[in-house]
Design the sequence.
């Protein structure tokens, strides 16, 4: 049984940006089986209000040390209580839950698109993509160079960028207010990049601007991105889905929905399926192929 | 996993002073098995409809055959997609839900869920919900063909659908009509699941028993609502939703108490049960078994903790069999 539920020790709980915390947890069971995109159901409070567990993505997992990490933004009661926990407190968690991002072997140009706290699970993803990049079917090292387009509301909220760079991702930052990086949204950058790299009709090509001077985008226009991965607020996912529908690149998005059970039992976390009816964000997702959902 | 081991691992009640005190005076055995209108259960703790899927979802955490019985998600004649999100909203010590009976339909259930469920080694109770009496009849008949199904729970209390559901459970005449239809469709035990959204629950219970119900389960969710103060609109598309969880427990307990005085069939009590103490209260009020719903979401081990807590309570009290306490607070 790979699902864990119980009390684990908090290793640290640090504010890494205003209102954003990173918490380390000691949980060998979850660390062993976690994959990027999966989440935990965290019981922030032992009493009866707030009652429900809160879903928080796994931002890192290390099998060797048995540690997992979460990164969360304080937005209400539950996350507020979480932020006041300290080192050595115990925390009741359940996980890893849900279907995460597929991480095929040997990808060379994966693209990740993140907005705000949605960057958290993408850190775990970036690491796995890098780790799996060299193991193509011939066991060769590859010229892995991922691309990350990330957006935050302002410069002071930015987190995880060094980590992405260490995972061999070229990072392009946007902020809503322009206080760091480009002013605008990461999906604008994704669109520009794809226009630059994809074979497009000559009439459109003139408008296509280079996505920047990075090595990857300018030098190796022959290598198309093999996959696009996105997590962030709904408008970002909508835009990514729209872009995906114009390319043939497999695109995966991680969605949020209010949850009760987190395991697929209550049908509370419905997201609209393009095949009719609903899918469960907690069990069928939270990661879906973009075309699976109506956003 | 060995029962004893489990209790030591998860049961925080060992240190309960009142139990410890009386423990040594009595035998360390208590029979918590129950038989409710022919459904033999090794303990009285069931998983409530709609909170346990079709039994598979929690199987990654523990062996579900440790429970007394499992009640399926509410089934309808045809498959249903359910209500648009949001479907869940948290309230103090409770949740509002508006799932809208999303389910694969009776045929989908038989085809996709039953083959696995029937091998789970635990009584399975099918919860059904009809738009009209004929639906109830047809579903009961079809489900009776299944070899090994333990009982049918007729939900005449779902607050989250357009037609049928709770409307049946709000008047003695329509409750009678729906339960009668189920009764005519099956020889299996029939459990009538009542809505708390009524003035006098005793009248509904009596009507259900007169129509042939072998047992009564209560309560389904209490109708409530929430308003989004920024959008200045109700949170739920259907405006009203069903309240469950610890917040509703006192109401549920009162209704079990009332129904126990009104009818002579066994009662399955539910509504906010989260601990063994809650379960004991329901039994003292008259419930022969209990179902755990919302508490599964908060602590998936809650049903197991309740089972072991009940056992310890009886031993501590020097009571040999559970049925000695049923209704004994009256
Ligand atoms: C699969 C998944 C992964 C997530 N990963 C992260 C993460 O890594 N870091 C992070 O900071 N946040 C994450 N979230 C969002 C996080 O769950 C909410 O911010 C959190 O539940 C808010 O709880 P609260 O008590 O502080 O806020 P409140 O506003 O007090 O919560 C009230 C209710 O709304 C629900 N709720 C509020 N916002 C959301 C939301 N966006 N999604 C789901 N339920 C919500 C709460 O669960 C609760 O039931 C994730 C959500 C999902 C579904
Ligand atoms: C998410 C959810 C879905 C439910 N679905 C059903 C259902 O399909 N059929 C039914 O008879 N009751 C349904 N119920 C009601 C429960 O079975 C139970 O009667 C009620 O929630 C009270 O118990 P609790 O407070 O322990 O949850 C549902 C409850 C919840 C919370
Ligand atoms: S949260 Fe219960 S099914 Fe997804």
Sequence:
């Amino acid at each position: 049984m790979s699902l864990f539920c119980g009390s684990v020790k908090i290793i640290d709980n640090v504010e890494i940006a205003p209102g954003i915390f990173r918490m380390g947890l000691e949980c060998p069971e979850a660390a062993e089986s976690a994959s990027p995109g999966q989440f935990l159901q965290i019981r922030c409070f032992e009493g009866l209000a707030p009652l429900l567990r809160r879903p928080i993505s796994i931002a890192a997992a290390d099998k060797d040390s048995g540690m997992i990490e979460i990164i969360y933004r304080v937005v209400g009661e539950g996350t507020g209580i979480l932020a006041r926990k300290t080192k050595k407190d115990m925390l009741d968690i359940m996980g890893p839950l849900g279907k995460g991002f597929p991480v095929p072997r040997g990808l060379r140009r994966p693209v990740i698109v993140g907005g705000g706290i949605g960057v958290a699970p993408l850190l775990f993803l970036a690491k796995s993509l890098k780790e799996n990049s060299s193991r193509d079917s011939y066991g060769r090292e590859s010229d892995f160079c991922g691309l990350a387009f990330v957006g935050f509301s302002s410069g002071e909220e930015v987190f995880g960028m060094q980590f992405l760079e260490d995972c061999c991702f070229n990072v392009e930052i946007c902020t809503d207010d322009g206080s760091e990086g480009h002013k605008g949204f990461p999906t604008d950058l994704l669109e520009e990049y794809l226009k630059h790299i994809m074979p497009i009709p000559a009439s459109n090509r003139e408008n296509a601007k280079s996505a920047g001077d990075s090595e990857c985008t300018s030098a190796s226009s022959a290598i198309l991105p093999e996959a696009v991965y996105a997590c962030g607020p709904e408008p970002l996912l909508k835009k990514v889905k729209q872009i995906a529908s114009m390319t043939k690149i497999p695109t995966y998005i991680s969605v949020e929905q209010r949850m009760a059970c987190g395991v697929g039992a209550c049908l509370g976390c419905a997201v609209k399926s393009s095949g009719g009816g609903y899918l469960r964000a907690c069990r069928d997702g939270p990661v879906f192929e973009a075309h699976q959902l109506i956003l | 996993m060995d029962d004893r081991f489990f209790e030591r691992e998860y049961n925080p009640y060992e240190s309960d002073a009142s139990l410890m005190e009386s423990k040594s005076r009595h035998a360390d055995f208590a029979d918590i098995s129950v038989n409710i209108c022919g459904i033999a259960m090794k303990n009285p703790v069931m998983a409530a409809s709609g909170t346990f899927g079709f039994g598979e979802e929690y199987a990654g955490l523990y062996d579900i055959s440790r429970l007394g019985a499992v009640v399926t998600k509410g089934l309808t004649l045809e498959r249903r997609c359910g209500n648009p999100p949001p479907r869940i909203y948290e309230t103090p010590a409770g949740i509002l839900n508006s799932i809208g009976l999303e389910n694969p339909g009776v045929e989908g259930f038989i085809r996709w869920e039953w083959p696995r469920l029937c091998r789970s080694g635990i009584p399975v109770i099918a919860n059904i919900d009809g738009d009209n009496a004929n639906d109830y009849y047809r579903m009961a008949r079809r489900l009776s063909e299944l070899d090994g199904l333990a009982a049918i729970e007729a939900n005449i209390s779902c607050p989250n659908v357009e037609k049928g559901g709770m409307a049946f459970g709000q008047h003695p005449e329509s409750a009678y009509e729906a339960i009668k239809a189920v009764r005519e469709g099956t020889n299996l035990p029939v459990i009538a699941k009542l809505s708390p959204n009524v003035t006098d629950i005793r009248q509904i219970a009596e009507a259900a028993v007169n129509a042939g119900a072998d047992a009564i389960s209560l309560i389904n969710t209490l109708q409530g609502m929430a308003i989004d103060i920024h959008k200045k609109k109700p949170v739920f598309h259907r405006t009203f939703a069903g309240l469950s969880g610890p917040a509703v427990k006192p109401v549920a307990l009162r209704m079990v108490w009332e129904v126990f005085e009104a009818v002579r069939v066994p009662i399955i009590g539910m509504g906010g049960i989260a601990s063994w103490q809650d379960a004991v209260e329901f039994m003292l009020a008259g419930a022969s078994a209990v179902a755990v719903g919302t508490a599964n979401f908060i602590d998936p081990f809650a049903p197991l903790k309740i089972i072991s807590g009940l056992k310890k309570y009886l031993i501590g009290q020097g009571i040999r069999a559970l049925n000695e306490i049923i209704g004994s607070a009256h």
User: Anything to note?
Assistant: Chain A has eight helices and 16 strands. Chain A has two domains: 4-97, 111-254. The first helix of chain A runs from residue 28 to 33.
